[in-house]
Each structure stands twice: as structure tokens, then as C-alpha cells.
Amino acid sequence: MAEPTYCATHPRVESYLRCSRCGKSICPRCMVQSPVGARCRDCARQRRLPVFVAGPLDLARGLGAGLAVGLLGGALLATPWLRFFHIFLILGLGYLVGRAVTAAANRKRAASLAVMAAASVVVGVLYGPLLWLALQAPQLLRASVLLEVALDALTDPLRVLFVALAAFLAWREVR
Fold first, then answer.
1. 10 Å Cβ neighbour count for 123?
2. Is the per-residue pLDDT at 147 higher than 70?
3. How far is CA 174 from CA 48, 54, 58, 72, 87, in A?
4. Count of CB atoms within 10 A of residue 108's CB?
């Protein structure tokens, strides 16, 4: 039988365990179970995969793309000739925003990008019609119109449901 050694972190604790990577003596309190065996805390520190880590540049590009697609899509939804398909186009907008955010962020799958995509859909549907209004009648734009447009979008329960579904689609497309 092997002789017991003492834990490198806790020198008073006898142990028969060794790190599977570096061979350092570890006790059960220090042991971290990994897919390849027991490891010490230093060797067990696992980095996240790069696809799930978005840097500041990825976040900025994702936010820019999400807001651009969301606002342009929201402006198109405000056109009178698309009113009949409005509810279903909101779902398509959610999908497109998710794809745009992912593409702009180099196919990253970070949680922060998913939240940005969902928020971009909501902002686009709420304030995209202001873009349409600015093109049609710029003299009508004033501060009270911002609140009026947002309240108009939030008074229809079916529309709120579809906007929530579209935000979920955008979030899901990025995650």
C-alpha cells in the first residue's frame, strides 16, 4: 500500500490523492472533480470557450447591428401597407435581429449579446415607427410623441405578446 502524503494546501491533512495533471498531493477538501479525474484547484480552473465570451468590440458591434435592424424593421412595420401582416412580421423581425447580432459579433453566443438582441427587438418595435414618422412628417416629432408611440404599442395585449415572442426568438437565436 502507498504511503500517505500531506496535502499541499493543508499540511496537517494526510492524503492518498494526487492531482491527475500536475501530481501535487491534495486532500478531499481541495479536490475538484473534472471530466478527466481529480485535480487540484489550480489545474481545475477551466476557461470558458471563446465562442461564449464576447469582448467590448463584439458587444458594440452586436448592439449596433441589433438596434439598426430593430429600428429599420420597426419603421417598416409602421408602414400602412404592411398592417395586415404586422403581427407575423414582428416574429420575423425577432429572428432577423438575432441573426444580425450574431453575425456582427463574429458568431459569438454570449448571454449579454442575447439580452441585447431581445432589447433591440423591443426598442425597434416601440420606436421604429418614429423613423417612419420622421420620414413622412418631420415637423410632428416632439418629446410627447415618444411617449405616445410607446404607450400605443403597449395597449394592445396581442401585440405585446408577439413582441415578447419576437424578443424570445432574438434571444434564442443568439444563445
1. 17
2. no
3. 17, 12, 13, 19, 22
4. 22
